[in-house]
Amino acid sequence: MASANTYLEVSELDFDGIRTNLKSYLSTQNQFKDYNFEGSAMAVLLDVLAYNTHYNAYYLNMVANEMFLDTAQQRDSVVSRAKELGYTPVSSVGATAVVNLNFNGIANTVSQFTIPLASKFSTTIDDITYTFVTTEATKVINNANTYSTNVAIREGTPLAHSFVVNSANPVKYVLPNKNIDTSSITVNVTESVSDTTSTEFTRLTNIREIFSTSAIYTVQESADEKYEVIFGDGVLGKSVKNGNVITISYLVNNGDVSNGADTFSVDSMSIGTSYSSVSVSTVTKAAGGRAAETIDSIKFNAPRNYQTQNRAVIDNDYQRIILAENSDLQSVIAFGGEQANPPVYGKVYIAVKPFAEKFSTVTRKQQIKEAISDRVPLAIDPVIIDADYTYVVPSITTYYDLTSTTSTTSAIEQNVRTAVATFSTDNLERFGNRLRFSRFVRALDNTSNGYILNNDVSLKLEKRFIPNLGKQQTINLLFNNSIRKSTLDSTQFTYKGFLSYLDDDGLGNVNVYRFNDAKQKVNITNNIGTIDYVNGTINIEGIAPTAVADGELKVSIIPERLDVIPVREQILLMESGDAVITIVGENT
Q1: For domain 311-386, which architecture applies?
Q2: Which residues of the chain have pLDDT under 70?
Q3: I need a labelling partner for 59 at 20 to 30 A (CA). Which of 30, 86, 156, 168 fits?
Q4: How far is residue 414 from each of residues 398, 411, 442, measured CA to CA in Å?
Q5: Strands 128-134 and 381-386: what pairing?
């Protein structure tokens, strides 16, 4: 008879430990005393028992991990946990471009016509063709016998799927495709196969505005990265009835691969009138495409979305809601009017930066404002503003080992420029991203496979703007970083008939100067503005340039500190083409 389990240990989880514990336990039993476990068939049985125990322990551990948002590894598990917090992961989104269409050969008697929704265009990237479609119907009006308009087109293949409601055998309305852009989903419900009376359902955005008759639907991610459409139950939203035919249309896209496309052609377009040709020119190249939200992003955003409860109260609420609902935006920041310069109370300022562009259109900013307005506190007015860009212009001297590489100086310079561009993309170009000087220099040092010895780097900060030519104006430049005295400079502009420049006297005054025939500086206007060296602001009063070089005026300073910190709506940019690079070879 076996003795009690006094010697049975259950703390081990690896195969060898489990097998050793089983062997130790059996050796304590009278039936197996002095038994040679390794020299008999019992060794095989011990292996099987240990393997089975190890397998079950691993399986149960994985099952337990998948039950919690923090430890889950499978996407379906993470999505399921996020669903409990009321969070729907962001779907993949195709890139959007704006093109101008100019129609030829249309009779002058045609007053207007409509470019239909889902008219197809195409572009080719790396020998792969991608489909773009119009996102809405657009009217084209006869303007002096010219038929031309701008239209927005989005990457994706239009598809539709139909379901017939059967209350005796209910099904989930799961769309069969992956990579669906959920913002493109449209739902129409007809009464039956024979009765084509149709109702368009709209996607639910605010549960406070639902009634039993509201024709709404919601979307949630289902298994295998597919999406399920859910209708109301007759209390919260209108329910679908037996025999209804549900038609769901959507775009299946390729994420971010078509970003940057700038050449398009018409594939199919039916406008209801004859035309001989249509020319397509790109107004805004394709941007805003992105892949579906990653597992790590879902884990990060789901609990924070639960905190906001679809309300915009603190600054992070605005940022999360707007980024989640607007796939074309790369970065968002919000701050109260009391933090503005000068302070404005009763407002919240929301700065937005789109992908691949510096500024959003007026129409786009108005759309963002309307979407957020019903979720802000009473008496608070949301104001959508553009980013304020500060350009970082590095001067770099790169020393490299002549004995370690056969690369030419031009090739090394190109590698350094690529490192500058990569650093800007990865570390700057978003609200709140600081320039850490030591990290920048380290990125330059790591450019090559050991042949770069070191880099000497200095920085300038630059503001760029287009002044109103010939008109007196006030110009305020906010660098928001302390300025080294006597370092103000500018590109050339014409002022009072002279080729002129800006500088400062080191005492807080801004002057306009020119060079005389002897190449000496001569002030044209003294004290035309002031400079606050501590707070990093420049104010210029009553300047009226009549021309500027290269279409814009660039004003630069040298910061007092090498680390540059943006404030509020300020974004730091470092363009590789602006970098001044010198390559020096050394024999080590």
Answers
A1: 2-Layer Sandwich (3.30)
A2: 1-13, 33-37, 39, 206-208, 449-450
A3: 86
A4: 12, 5, 17
A5: unpaired
